[in-house]
Specification:
Low-confidence stretches: 87-92
Distance between the termini: 34 Å
Largest sheet: 5 strands, antiparallel
Number of helices: 4
Strand order of the largest sheet: 4-3-2-1-5
Structural class: alpha+beta
Helix content: 25-40%
Number of strands: 5
C-alpha cells in the first residue's frame, strides 16, 4: 500500500472498477438531475441543494465529506432543531481476501494489445491493494489489476 494515501495511484488500463467511486458519484448526480427535471423551480437552486445534501451524507466511518475537508460539521436547518448525537458506532472493516500474489510468482496477465489474450510473466512488485507490476518473459513490464492476473505453473523454455 502507498505510504501517503493522498497521492494518486496509477490504475490498470481497461478496468473501470478501479475508478468505481467516481463512476458511482456521476451515476448518483445524473439520477438526481433527472428527478429534478420534473420539478418546478430554479435549476441553480436545485443544484445547490443537491450538492449540499451530497456533502452532508456520512461515509462508513460516520464522517461527511464536508467534515473531512473543513474539520467541522456543515450547519443545516435540521441541525438547529436536533440535539447532537454523542455516540459514534464503530465500524468493522474486513481486509480484502481475494487473489493475492507474491513477488516472483509465475503468473499470466491479460493482454489488450493483440489477439493473444494472455502473456506469461513474473510478479515484480505489488502496488497498492489491487495492482501488480509484472515482468513479462520478453522483458516488458505491465501494471495490471488483480482481476487481470492469474497464477500459473507453466514455465517458459529457457
Amino acid at each position: 500500500p502507498p505510504q501517503n494515501p493522498g497521492l494518486a495511484t496509477p490504475l490498470a488500463a481497461f478496468h473501470p472498477a478501479t475508478n468505481g467511486q467516481a463512476e458511482r458519484f456521476i451515476q448518483t448526480i445524473k439520477k438526481h438531475l433527472k428527478a429534478m427535471n420534473e420539478e418546478q423551480g430554479d435549476i441553480n437552486l436545485k443544484i445547490r441543494l443537491l450538492l449540499m445534501q451530497l456533502r452532508e451524507v456520512e461515509n462508513s466511518e460516520g464522517e461527511s465529506p464536508y467534515t473531512l475537508m473543513f474539520g467541522r460539521d456543515l450547519r443545516t436547518r435540521l441541525d438547529a432543531i436536533m440535539k447532537p448525537v454523542q455516540e459514534k458506532t464503530e465500524t468493522v472493516t474486513t481486509p480484502y481476501k481475494g487473489n493475492c500474489f507474491n513477488v516472483d510468482d509465475r503468473v499470466q496477465v491479460r493482454n489488450y494489445t493483440n489477439n493473444k489474450k494472455w502473456e506469461f510473466g513474473t510478479v515484480k512488485k505489488r502496488e497498492g491493494l489491487m495492482h501488480y507490476v509484472v515482468t513479462l518473459d520478453d522483458g516488458r513490464e505491465w501494471r495490471r489489476h488483480v482481476d487481470q492476473v492469474r497464477l500459473t505453473h507453466y514455465r517458459a523454455d529457457t
